[in-house]
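Deviation from plan, reported transparently: PBG complex.
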Amino acid sequence: MAFPEDRMRDKRITEETRRKYRETGELSPKDLVMPIFVKEGISKKNEISSMPGIYQFPFEDVAAEAQRILDAGVPAVILFGIPEKKDETGSGSYAENGVVQKAIRIIKEKVPEITVIGDVCMCEYTSHGHCGILNKSESRGRESEYIVDNDATIEILGKIAVSYAKAGADIVAPSAMMDGQVKAIKDALTVNVYPDVKIMSYSAKYASAFYGPFRDAAESPPRFGDRRTYQMDHYNSDEAILESAMDIEEGADILMVKPALAYQDIICRLKKELNFPLACYSVSGEYAMFKAAAAKGYLNEEKVVLESLVGLKRAGADTIITYYAVEAAKWLTK
Ligand code: PBG
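Because the crystal trials were delayed, the predicted structure below was used instead.
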């Protein structure tokens, strides 16, 4: 280090010195992923009231939205579908002509350069809103009467992943937090000969109140109970390391921490301890908080958002999924 330790301020004296001594690489639009919600049966986009600037899109608008994202310099999208009909077993989730499958085909045809990630879960497709198949006997006397049947669910997650791969997805992202889900998907992709499709596992996904606005956007709140029997307890961090290490064993290509801002310690530990490609998901509630404060004029939106994204990168995230992706890309390149 060129500066004596008692002259720390010398590093901060000009923009040039500050840049010279930066420890984290410059935040780039290339680090970002933008979510897209696609809704069946609508003809005009709907704004999500708790997430100003974020919409549910009809199929007709999906290609233009992907193009807008790519034009801003953001290289990837993650897709969520809202089907017209839901059922007990979430059968729409793996339908050949399901919402996400159709959206993938549209984007791959019209905007082939963009990386397409499909979120693999059942909560948008089940009438009860849980992330898998429910089974009464599985509860085995535990607190809730109905519990998600892990092994029946991972079989379906495999089918969803294959249907996305068939439609042209580059990456599948299982978010159901079922045990063995990465292996089930890996096996299904291998058997169906899609070895190039990558798996981005929501490996450390916490049961979080920060998902509130998403459940409006994806119309997927659980009709009863909550997700604490499958998503992680936010008091834990060793468990995140273990879950993620298991996912690597099972064949994950990229790990993920979700939510992001309240879990930077997890991002940091995972990067240090496992040194594996790592994404984080700055979720709907995080976006909603920034938007609400900015609308009141309480914060400089651009500055706080970029500072937060840099914080996630500094913590160790290689990739950041954020509803701010396009806005941040514009701020970064202006
Ligand atoms: C599906 C899923 C959720 C989110 C991403 N995938 C909701 C949940 O688990 O309840 C949340 C994303 C966000 O809040 O932005 N399981």
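The longest strand covers residues 32-39. We consider this an acceptable substitute for the interim report.
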